[in-house]
Amino acid sequence: xxxxxxxxxxxxxxxxxxxxxxxxxxxxxAKVLVDAEMKGHPxxxxxxxxxxxxxxxxxxxxxxxxxxxxWQSSSFFSVDGARGLGPVVADHAIATxxxxxxxxxxxxxxxxxxxxxxxLAHYVEGIAEAGxxxxxxxxxxxxxxxxxxxxxxxxxxxxxxxIPVEGAAPFVVDLATSIVSMGKVHHYAATGAALEPGxxxxxxxxxxxxxxxxxxxxxxxxxxAKGYALGLSFELxxxxxxxxxxxxxxxxxxxxxxxxxxxxVFIIINAGTDRQNASRFAAYLDAIRHSAPEQPAxxxxxxxxxxxxxxTAARLQGFTLDPALHRQLLSLSTQTAQAQP
Amino acid sequence: xxxxxxxxxxxxxxxxxxxxxxxxxxxxxAKVLVDAEMKGHPxxxxxxxxxxxxxxxxxxxxxxxxxxxxWQSSSFFSVDGARGLGPVVADHAIATxxxxxxxxxxxxxxxxxxxxxxxLAHYVEGIAEAGxxxxxxxxxxxxxxxxxxxxxxxxxxxxxxxIPVEGAAPFVVDLATSIVSMGKVHHYAATGAALEPGxxxxxxxxxxxxxxxxxxxxxxxxxxAKGYALGLSFELxxxxxxxxxxxxxxxxxxxxxxxxxxxxVFIIINAGTDRQNASRFAAYLDAIRHSAPEQPAxxxxxxxxxxxxxxTAARLQGFTLDPALHRQLLSLSTQTAQAQP
Lengths: 341, 341
Hints:
Two copies of one chain form a homodimer.
Chain A: E1 2-3, H1 5-18, H2 23-38, H3 49-57, E2 68-73, E3 76-84, H4 86-104, E4 106-114, H5 121-129, E5 133-138, E6 159-163, E7 171-175, H6 182-191, E8 200-201, E9 207-208, H7 211-215, E10 218-219, H8 224-242, E11 263-269, H9 275-289, H10 305-317, E12 319-320, H11 323-339
Parallel strand pairs in A: 3-4
Antiparallel strand pairs in A: 1-12, 2-3, 4-11, 5-6, 5-11, 6-7, 8-9, 8-10
């Protein structure tokens, strides 16, 4: 079924407000989930909302808090998320760190004890809107095997980066260091499609193209040994900076039973970019877009172009939502209504 | 032929001192080149020395300067390298920024107008020795095509990261975002070996396994669309932070005709890691090393393990140097001797 941005946002916001989220927190959490849908990444979209609602109901997520932050040193903002909503705690930390970065040239915010962030692009887009360069890292449960290994020992360890470009949308990348997302594997399992060879191993460590078996196994890092090296570096950076566990000790982003103990890191840089530089950026990115493609029918893309095109289309035409998920969300809404006097 | 670390270092140091390098600068530049040889990366080793010597003789590299730095803001150190040797300017900038990072939690150093850095691992190893977390980025000439493209528009854009681990060697990664280095392609061309499919395109943009044709063409990014996205992000980050050109406008790391106008960026983080965390790191990395491998005979490696093993072996047994390169270096030494009164 098709749903509009306004309908989806109202539905998600209502469900969160009904569980005690202040309206501003509910709107922000809803926006992050709906934006992921519109960008074409449903694995980070509304399918996460029923779990988040269970987490709120169980006290594993506190929709009212912005966390408790302190400046560990003058440019290092350390935040105990106090079980808050990921986007609420992170946007608050970033908003606190931005003026410091603007003044000193660079600042860092590290968060522990907050819930799932959703797509990292949201956070670096916010930093770029402030005219600054952003880098975001977040850790997760163990889902990825080492290059040459067979056991899930690393998180999917996404990274996002943004660079503001004057007079144009910022350059934004947001990617996991796994070859595909576990959300995609679940989608393949649901539709009975086979995985591509090399994507996953089963629980016993054998290569598999059976999405059902892969769910209990592990994903490959993207890009072989180099992607593994990057993913492991991000794993260690986050653990060292946020003081959080490594992937095998992390829970709470994929379940409704455990506190969320992953870590999030945001680096914010004020490079004092002048206008000339910014127009130069747009010209370089356009030179890439207009360069000779491998396949004449497939022009070269700049990262972020596809997500932006899908977002624009979804703003006009709405986006596709799984009817079962829609019914589930409506039933959660009804439960709330029935529970009220 | 085999050469020892001491012999190679003395040879390189002597050549640089003879061209006016202060002994400390000559020793540092020699160490960076010889370390690359010992780690098994001759593309960043002594084969770069004859070119560097020509650059010094032509005034494109000034072996005496440490560059001219200023604090653009309290945690952003901006350095005009003044055509200095890459390692000399960068180590000086890092040494200046480390106390600031230690005090404030994070600092950044950005360099333009310095010569080639060699392997980035050196710089983040130095940061880790100071007990801090390091991230290093450096831009280069256009050698890499976009994913889905055919033209060399991106640099090889390497990244290095280090995390100190108490009571053990630091965790260090250092990798280019191209699928292989152009140095490796040159090596294949010299030995007549075929490239692997997918590594490179020729000058006209066609896929090629002919290393000779690939030299005038372009390399693939590693890891498909994701590696391309990362490489392009680093390209833009460096240009925005150091104010340097994009790859198509860069020269001076592969020639002896042009000033070197690439950029270098170092981010230094003081996370205040406590001892407990550090031993936790070693335990996690060991769990990865001892996890079930894909091939029973090939244990899972942690990035940096191979380079460290090769370094240890080379310290004991010396390393292999191309006899033609050795003769060339000796002849440069003789020329100096003859030129002296």
